[in-house]
Amino acid sequence: VQLVESGGGLAQPGESLIVSCAASGFTFWWYDMSWYRQAPGKEREWVASIKSIAGVTNYADSVKGRFTISRDNRKEMVFLQMNSLTPEDTAVYYCNARQGSTEYWGRGTQVTVSS
Fold it and tell me: Mind listing the pLDDT tens digit for each residue in 50-99?
């Protein structure tokens, strides 16, 4: 099983970034997919989720209206489009797959928002 994040980097406040997660080794379409993030000195926090069926999405209040999660079941990938970035969005972003009690994590990709 692998979840490999990519697309992080440096952005200025107000700019946009997209992070991607490529999955392999499990039945991707069956799993709910999420993004979490962990800022320096803080606990990991949930950012957004997309259900396996029908693609229902949910967002943390801190990113609602700015971030969009999506998935491509054929390519076995999940994406997080991040708009209107602020320095408070600086964190390592982690991809998560969950189905019942089974859960997988990626290693994360760094997103830094700074002028």
Answer: 999 778 999 999 999 999 999 999 999 999 999 999 999 999 999 999 99
Three-state SS sequence of the chain: CEEEEECCEEECCCCCEEEEEEEECCCHHHCEEEEEEECCCCCCEEEEEECCCCCCEEECCCCCCCEEEEEECCCCEEEEEECCCCHHHCEEEEEEEEECCEEEECCCEEEEECC
- Ramachandran bin of 60, using left for φ above 0, alpha for ψ from -120 to 50, beta for the remaining angles: beta
